[in-house]
């Protein structure tokens, strides 16, 4: 499904951009002419000035830094642990048999329920935030990796035994490159999840970061700044994802081509 | 369930039967990548009632478009398209299409019988629907498979289901777009003969597109060659072969070889030598 | 298709995957060094659970949450399917709206809650609206993709058989899309549950999530963990139910649809 939309939006999609511009223009018009007046609905220029204020006043940067730092730490842990366990589960039927049901229990548990628990156990600090993000992002990474390994065509396994590759060499030369695509998809999902959970946990009681700032602006009754933060959150997600994809493209050119064929 | 050959218009002197189809200087352009691309140029042809007509030609010459114009799925930009004297503006129950891609043309979540029922629903009482479905399946030899799902049947059988669905409508004309193109040679031969049976029983007019010259000559009364881009009819030949046809006997006849040779030459060079 | 006996054996075999979880819980229960006020042993969870149940808030809270979940998910399915079919049927429309929708989709539902509260006030409808906003994307995007991938031939066929627009939609388009819709619902449902609990947290609905926050803020750890376990069970049951529904709906489609 990812292929489908990247094809639609890749050649500079003037029509799409035009639609966004059009919506913004309409919004501006509607608010400026007081056709629709909500105190809580600022116009795009209002949001833009709020954004400028946040940037210039220096308020934004420590918040951004905090959220990003937590999200990235969480992500690294999730990718490492999830990738490792996923590989194990995919490679070994025994491991899979003795762990799959547990994984499914945790997967079906709504992640956000862990937030109050984590705050209870570790207090409202960075540690809780990172652990939460890592916990949440772990599962998509694990599941996608395991599925990727299991999806290796049987023919390739034959190749490895014909060439008499040792277990380690087989993992290194066949499994990892082939699973690379799946792992990339898993890593992207994990990044999105880590970011979202970090922001949400900030909104729910952790005293720092973008999420926290968002909630504070709500209580301070500053709709324009609140909207600005919402936009920042959205943009952050897109930016991080794009950065990851570009990075991998540069480091491992073949892998993303494989990704475009795999399921999202 | 023989089709009565209805004569709507006064029979013109010189023609033995009235016309099922009459196309006059049809030009068709279709949108492709923004601009309009001409597909058919000045196509004129006649199909007499009860005839079997084959249309052959290389890829990209607009054969499918021609069929779609005749079925009413596509409107001609200029020219006239008459089905039994009336202009064709949209699909009618008098001319039903059978497509090459039977997997897409059949609905996988419906049984064979319910697939055949699709064009009849809401148009006639249940009892009549049942009768027509039974007769149609009987005619293609799938009466015992009525309750199965299409994906459990072979390709040839699925195509027969599609044909049965077309026959259930009891159309005057059967339009077929490379109906046997996706099948292997043995199944193809079997289905060709079944089609001849259907034609003998119903007297319906059949217009079909094919890549296969042999098939064209074997099945039809007349073969038209379409060539060029945009496509136009460059040649027409009466096969003049006796009916009933036989896979071995008919293909041994000298006339068969002559026609086949003629068509092969035209296709190779784009015109008669 | 497995026969009855080996199906039961298969189910039992898959239960051994729960061993790691059981081991962790047992360790937690009997290892007193891991106990701090904030990490009570599982036995205390059960006591707390009984206690909460006695006060009557438990089942009411669960009902509130589940009701919001179902209402939100159903609305998301209906809207997502209808809009997805419409959107996916036009190449132009897809191209025009994709960037805008991709951006909206990247904005998590949680971030939208404060905005929604300010704009629409804290009502039931707002709650449902947020759940819809959070969970509609898989359905919308998947349905649009499937609609776009529908072989034009199938639609031509329906047109050539003179089916009315409505009949085409009901008998050809919708059933063709059903496998994709079902798969997307499978993805959207857990998201809807998560967003529902989030709404519980942020909007004082009186549901399970709201109770959990109360217990957390008053440091009632055993009660918090009891609710965690309850939500866990709800999650598992939800998952099993969805799998069963998926299987029932799709039994008429060949693998791949």
Could you please describe the fold and organization of this structure?
The complex is a heterotrimer of chains A (264), B (273) and C (257). By secondary structure, chain A is mainly alpha-helical. Chain A has helices at residues 2-10, 14-32, 44-56, 60-91, 93-108, 114-122, 126-150, 154-162, 167-203, 209-219, 223-251, 253-259. In chain A, helix 4 (60-91) packs antiparallel against helix 5 (93-108). Chain A is globular. The termini of chain A are close together. Chain B is 34% helix and 25% strand. In chain B, the strands form 2 sheets. Chain B has a 6-stranded mixed β-sheet with strand order 6-7-8-3-9-10, with helices on both faces. A 4-stranded antiparallel β-sheet of chain B has the order 2-1-4-5, with helices on one face. With 257 residues, chain C is mainly α. Chain C has 2 domains: 1-34; 42-250, MetI-like fold, CATH 1.10.3720.10. Chain C is built from 11 helices and no strands. Chains in contact: A-C, B-C. Chains A and C meet through helix 1, helix 2, helix 5, helix 6 and helix 9 of A and helix 1, helix 2, helix 5, helix 6 and helix 7 of C.
- CATH architecture of the largest domain in chain A, by name, is Orthogonal Bundle
- Rg over C-alpha atoms of chain C, rounded to the nearest angstrom: 23 Å
Question: What would the principal axes of the Cα set say about the shape of chain A?
Answer: globular
| Range of helix content of chain C | over 70%
CATH topology of the largest domain in chain C: MetI-like fold
Please write out the topology.
The complex is a heterotrimer of chains A (264), B (273) and C (257).
Chain A lengths: L1 H9 L3 H19 L11 H13 L3 H32 L1 H16 L5 H9 L3 H25 L3 H9 L4 H37 L5 H11 L3 H29 L1 H7 L5
Chain B lengths: L18 E14 L2 E14 L3 E5 L6 H9 L6 E6 L2 E2 L7 E4 L3 H4 L6 H6 L8 H15 L14 H14 L4 E5 L7 H18 L2 E6 L2 H7 L2 E6 L4 E7 L10 H4 L1 H16 L4
Chain C lengths: L3 H12 L3 H12 L11 H14 L1 H32 L2 H16 L2 H12 L3 H25 L3 H9 L4 H39 L4 H10 L3 H30 L7
Task: Report a brief summary of the structure.
Chain B has 273 residues and is of the alpha/beta class. Chain B contains nine helices and ten strands.
Descriptive keywords:
heterotrimer; A: about 260 residues; mainly alpha; MetI-like fold; disordered C terminus; B: about 270 residues; Rossmann fold; 2 domains; 4-stranded antiparallel sheet; globular
